[in-house]
Automatic annotation (TrEMBL), chain B:
The keyword Hydrolase applies. This is Cell division ATP-binding protein FtsE. SMART domains: AAA, NIL. One of its GO terms (molecular function) is ATP binding. It comes from Nitrincola nitratireducens.
C-alpha cells in the first residue's frame, strides 16, 4: 500500500490543497461581490422589467456573453497583462484570482438574473404597493425571495471555479490542478494523479451537498 | 373620497395604441365598499391600479382626499402608497418571510415605528384576523383563506384609509370566500375604511358592496347603488352578470312559462316589505289566485330583498297590481 503512494509528498499535497482553497475562496468572494450586483442590474434593465433600459442591457449582455464564450484557458492567457496590473504578479494564488473572477462573474451574474426572474411578479407589485423604494424592493423582496436560487447559483459557480483553479495550474497558479499536471501527467506519477483527483472530487461533493442543504434550509415553498 | 377626472389609459404595443380605459369620470365616496365588476380585459384591474399609481394614467387627474395623486413625485408617491392597502387574488405574500414578518413588512419599509411597536402592532393585527397561532409559520404552510387573511392584516398594518382588493376571493372556495368577505365587511365598519374591490362575481358585489360600477371594454357602462343595479339592471353586460348569479335567463324562462295561464308578473321587494305577509293580503282583497313560478329571498349587503315571479289568475288583476305598488313593491309585467 505505502509503495503505491511512493511519489506522494503529503506536505506538498497539503500546500496545494490550501492553494486551491485560497483560490476558490478568494475568487468566489469577488465573483459574488461583482456578480450579484451585475445580475441584479441585468434583471432590472432587461426588457419588460422594472427599469427596462434597452441600451444598457444590450451592452452588459454583450460583455457577459463575450466573457462567457471565451474558453477559460484562453482567458487565463489573455488576462496576463491585466492581472499583472492588478496584483503585480501573474503567478500563484494572487495571479490566478483575477482571471478566475473574470471567468466566473459573468456566469454567476446570468444565473442570478435567472433566479431573480423566477420571483413572482405579484410580489414585486405588492412591495411597490406598500410604498417601497427601488432599493427596498431589491433588498427586502427580490433578494430574499430569490435566495434559494442564488444559493444554488453560488454552488454551481463554486464548482465551476474548482475546475477553473485546476486549469489555472497551467499558467503557474499552483494548487491541486497544478500538482496533477506537473507530477501526475508530465512525470507519469499516477499515485499523485489519483490523490489530487480524489481530493478535487471530495471538494466538489462537499460544495454540492453544502449548497443543497442551504437551498433546502432557505426554501419555504 | 376618490375622484377620477377624465382619466384615460392607453398602452403602446408595437406602435399600435390600445385603450385600456376610455376617458372616465368616477367618484368613490369615503367609508363605502365600492365594487367594480367586469369580465377579464374590461379594464377594471387597470382602473384599480390607477388609484395607487401602479399604473400611470395617460391623461386626466385622480384626486384622493382632494390631493391630485398624478402630480406626486417619487418620494411623495411612496408616502401616499403607505396609506393605501392592497390585497391580491394570489395573495402575493413573501414566501421567504414568516406570517409575522409579512405583516410587519409595510411597517419596516415605512420606518416610523420602533421594533417593539411593530411587534405589538403585528400581534394586534394577527389577533384581528384570527391568526395569532400562525405567526411563526411560512405562507406555504397556510390554506388559501389564511393566506388572504395575512394579506389583509399586512394591508391594514399602516392604518390605511383606502383598501384596494384585486379579485381577493377569486382563488378561494365558496366557504372561505364567505369568511373573507365577512372580514372585509367588518373592517369597513370598524375602521371606516374605503374599500375598492374588483371582481367578476356578482355574488361578491351583492354581499358586501354599497356601490357598484359595471365595466365593459374599457368603459363604465352602468353605475349606482348595488340594490338599484342588481334589482334593475339596464345594460346587457349588467344583466348578464345578474342572471349568471341567479342562474336564470329571462328569455328562456318566459318560454318555459308558455304553458302557464294568467298574467305573469315579477315583484321586487326591498327592506322591511320583504317579510310582510303581502301576497295573501292582496289575494284576499282582489280575489286573484297566484302561483309562484320563481323566486329568491336574500340580502343585498344587510338589506333584505325578494324577487318573485308570479302568475295571477282570476279576480281583479288591476286592483292587485295597484295594491302591490301601494305597498312599495316594484311590479314588472312580464306577460299580460
Amino acid at each position: 500500500m505505502s509503495s503505491f503512494f511512493n511519489n506522494v509528498d503529503w506536505y506538498d499535497i497539503w500546500l496545494a490543497t490550501l492553494d486551491t482553497l485560497m483560490m476558490l475562496g478568494g475568487s468566489m468572494l469577488f465573483t459574488v461581490l461583482f456578480g450579484l450586483p451585475l445580475g441584479v442590474i441585468l434583471f432590472l434593465t432587461a426588457p419588460k422589467q422594472m427599469f427596462e433600459q434597452k441600451a444598457l442591457y444590450g451592452i452588459l449582455s454583450f460583455f457577459v456573453n463575450v466573457l462567457r464564450s471565451l474558453p477559460f484557458i484562453i482567458l487565463l492567457i489573455v488576462m496576463i497583462p491585466l492581472t499583472l496590473l492588478i496584483t503585480g504578479t501573474s503567478l500563484g494564488v494572487a495571479g490566478a484570482i483575477p482571471p478566475l473572477v473574470a471567468g466566473a462573474t459573468p456566469f454567476f451574474a446570468r444565473l442570478v438574473e435567472t433566479a431573480l426572474r423566477e420571483v413572482d411578479k405579484g410580489i414585486i407589485e405588492a412591495t411597490q404597493a406598500m410604498g417601497a423604494s427601488t432599493w427596498q424592493i431589491i433588498t427586502q423582496a427580490l433578494l430574499p425571495e430569490a435566495r434559494p436560487g442564488i444559493i444554488a447559483a453560488s454552488t454551481v459557480t463554486a464548482i465551476t471555479l474548482v475546475s477553473y483553479t485546476a486549469m489555472a495550474g497551467v499558467v503557474g497558479a499552483g494548487g491541486l490542478g497544478d500538482l496533477a499536471i506537473r507530477f501526475g501527467y508530465q512525470r507519469f506519477q499516477t499515485d499523485v494523479m489519483v490523490v489530487t483527483v480524489v481530493l478535487l472530487l471530495i471538494l466538489v461533493q462537499l460544495l454540492q451537498s453544502l449548497g443543497d442543504r442551504l437551498v433546502i434550509h432557505f426554501s419555504r415553498k | 373620497m376618490i375622484q377620477f377626472k377624465h382619466v384615460h389609459k392607453a398602452y403602446k404595443v408595437g406602435g399600435r395604441e390600445i385603450t385600456a380605459l376610455e376617458p372616465c369620470d368616477l367618484q368613490i365616496p369615503e367609508g363605502q365598499i365600492f365594487g367594480l365588476i367586469g369580465h377579464s380585459g374590461a379594464g377594471k384591474s387597470t382602473l384599480l391600479r390607477l388609484i395607487n399609481r401602479l399604473e400611470e394614467p395617460t391623461s386626466g387627474s385622480i384626486l384622493v382626499k382632494d390631493q391630485d395623486i398624478t402630480a406626486l413625485d417619487a418620494a411623495a408617491l411612496r408616502r401616499f402608497r403607505q396609506g393605501v392597502g392592497m390585497i391580491f387574488q394570489h395573495f402575493n405574500l413573501l414566501s421567504s418571510k414568516t406570517v409575522a414578518d409579512n405583516v410587519a413588512m409595510p411597517l419596516k419599509l415605512a420606518n416610523e415605528l420602533s421594533k417593539s411597536q411593530i411587534r405589538a402592532r403585528v400581534h394586534q393585527l394577527l389577533e384581528r384576523v384570527g391568526l395569532t397561532d400562525h405567526a411563526q409559520k411560512y405562507p406555504a404552510q397556510l390554506s388559501g383563506g389564511q393566506k388572504q387573511r395575512v394579506g389583509i392584516a399586512r394591508a391594514l398594518s399602516t392604518n390605511p384609509s383606502i383598501l384596494l382588493c384585486d379579485e381577493a376571493t377569486s382563488a378561494l372556495d365558496p366557504q372561505t370566500t364567505g369568511q373573507v368577505l365577512q372580514l372585509l365587511n367588518e373592517i369597513n365598519r370598524e375602521l371606516n375604511l374605503t374599500i375598492v374591490l374588483i371582481t367578476h362575481e356578482m355574488d361578491v358585489i351583492r354581499r358586501i358592496c354599497d356601490q357598484v360600477a359595471v365595466m365593459d371594454a374599457g368603459r363604465i357602462v352602468e353605475q349606482g347603488s348595488v340594490s338599484e343595479v342588481f334589482l334593475h339592471p339596464q345594460h346587457p353586460t349588467t344583466r348578464r352578470f345578474v342572471y349568471e348569479d341567479e342562474h336564470l335567463d329571462e328569455q328562456e324562462q318566459l318560454k318555459r312559462f308558455a304553458q302557464i295561464t294568467g298574467c305573469i308578473i315579477k315583484l321586487t321587494f326591498q327592506g322591511e316589505s320583504t317579510y310582510s305577509p303581502l301576497l295573501g293580503e292582496v289575494a284576499r282583497h282582489s280575489g286573484v289566485d297566484y302561483s309562484i313560478l320563481n323566486g329568491r329571498i336574500d340580502y343585498i349587503r344587510d338589506t333584505p330583498y325578494g324577487q318573485l315571479t308570479l302568475s295571477l289568475i282570476g279576480g281583479n288583476t288591476a286592483a292587485a297590481l295597484d295594491a302591490f305598488r301601494a305597498a312599495d313593491v316594484m311590479v314588472e309585467i312580464l306577460r299580460p
